[in-house]
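REQUEST ID: PR-0412
SUBMITTED BY: lab tech R.K.
PRIORITY: routine
TASK: structure prediction, single protein chain
INPUT:
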Amino acid sequence: MKIYVAGRMSERDEVKRIYALLKKSGHEISVDWTWHKNIKPYDKNSKVARDYSIEDMDGVIDCDIFILLTSESPGSGSAGELGAAILSQIKLGKPKIYVVGQYMGNNFFYFHPTVVRRNTIDEVLKELK
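STATUS: complete
OUTPUT:
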């Protein structure tokens, strides 16, 4: 299955660790955004921001499984990706959406009926087997 893992830039090492676990289980990563450079402020890097936003949205739309790692301070990028995943699930029947972590109360979209909430990535990995 193709999987997209969304999270904050500051969590890129954790996302890379999850990628390795997913690949070891035979899954494919739809888009690896962890190589992206920090381009804030976005208005000073608008061409790169445009390219990254297109690539990431394509990855969300193309994936079978979408996983969002929650954080104390939700990121605007991951919030947009979650919105795209929810719309894709409603309109196309995929991806299956997981929101993972201890900060599941930080965004009301985490409670959308298409979203499966889990405490840890290990719970998700068990379900994907």
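NOTES: Residues 40 and 49 are 9 Å apart (CA to CA).
REVIEWED BY: pending
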